[in-house]
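tool_call: predict_structure(chain=1)
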Amino acid sequence: MADFFVVRDSLKAKIEADVPEIRRVYFAEDLDGVKESSQNTPAVHVLYQGYSPAQAERLRVDITIDQVWAVVLVLRHARGKYEGGEILDKLIQALHGYQPSGAVMKLELASSTFAPSYRPGVAYYPLAFSTRVINRKGA
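tool_result:
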């Protein structure tokens, strides 16, 4: 693994290929200065959510890391209406069991540290997926 965030580009490509309703996939750096009202929705934000060491062996040269990635569906929101359930289902179907480039484990649905959020005119529905990568000494 030469890039700690190697998984994210593969997540974006999979979402774009399998969930055609999504108009744009954003990374965290794409969101700097973007106004909520100007987002081209339905959109997805792919955000790194954190990691944990998968193995703690003192003599291991390689480090096995479990990563969690948030996939947040962004929709225009009509007051009192829940929409996006079908798109959330498609995101789960597309990503759960998919092995991203650079990962050594297929994605699994995980608990998200993000809660759904509702702002005037916009709703955010988070999902989270975990996978495993290996940081090889000298790579």
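agent: The two ends are 6 Å apart (CA to CA). Proceeding to next step.
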